[in-house]
């Protein structure tokens, strides 16, 4: 019913406002963590998003204070990665119009490159793929191409395509955060922007390897975390969120569908969604299953894909509503604002302290709640700031 939709959209907006208020008044503006993943760079972008969504200057002022803080930290940072260091900070500073500071950050990233890589990790979260995406979004296409070019000569052939050694251990990871699909996303996005067909071709070959590992049959899509299993005593074999599951895999397939015009990638997006819808999330089915509300491996990351599908596939809003209702049920709301405590069944107490950042905390959740509220209210289908690894939506019916 329209009334119910309007009520839920209002609740989402109220929760988002409370989450952003907690960011403004809580620990984040003076945080010592500068990162896009869990720290100040991610918070600054969501404060900027909130300013555009709510049209309130106090959010813009908080974002500017955060940008001042990030600028003052540049010269002391060594980490060049997208989600942990300077590449992500450059994205945030560029979005806020701090061009000189963003250029300084990118200059330091370039200086940290040895021609092959920046550190032992060779993937999206900490390595070349993410740094390339950050450079691309921050406006340095040449640096982006330099970052991903080493993947052309370091790919290992597999039965289904190619993959890469992403860490100094034997397992090969398959998904976005640390694996083949994150590299494929960077190769495709940067190759498309730079007119480099060889990079796009390598992206397709990497994605083909992961597709060949599907264990969910012809209707679904579910691929293990890694082979051989990486740290199986701690890491579950199958996940469903953005980082290591079909909610993130689908974002790669969305990008490949847009770049290639090949409908088979859209079919794979649908198969990812089929598996997500039937997984049981967001219910806590067993210890460790769906204990996180955040953007990286929790409900907010699935809501992002649900909203993409509302725009691109004309989906029924029902499952997005389930996700919003779950976020509302798990929120702590008081005079300080709204916030979420994730749950860790292996420690006592199991309820973790609320976090401000994009990955596991308020920033990432608020971003998706604001977008849901806009969509349900007839507003813009996208965001004020594009995220490095989240493709913009295309209108329904394009495929």
Note down, in words, how this protein is organized.
By secondary structure, this protein is mainly alpha-helical. The chain contains 15 helices and six strands. It has helices spanning 2-25, 40-54, 57-73, 86-95, 99-111, 128-137, 141-148, 150-154, 180-194, 197-211, 246-260, 263-277, 299-312, 318-330, 362-376; strands at residues 156-157, 162-163, 172-173, 226-227, 331-334, 337-340. The strands form three sheets. A two-stranded antiparallel sheet has the order 1-2. Strands 3-4 form a two-stranded antiparallel ribbon. A two-stranded antiparallel ribbon has the order 5-6. A hairpin with a 2-residue loop joins strand 5 and strand 6. It is globular. The two termini are 29 Å apart. The model has no long low-confidence stretch (mean pLDDT 95).
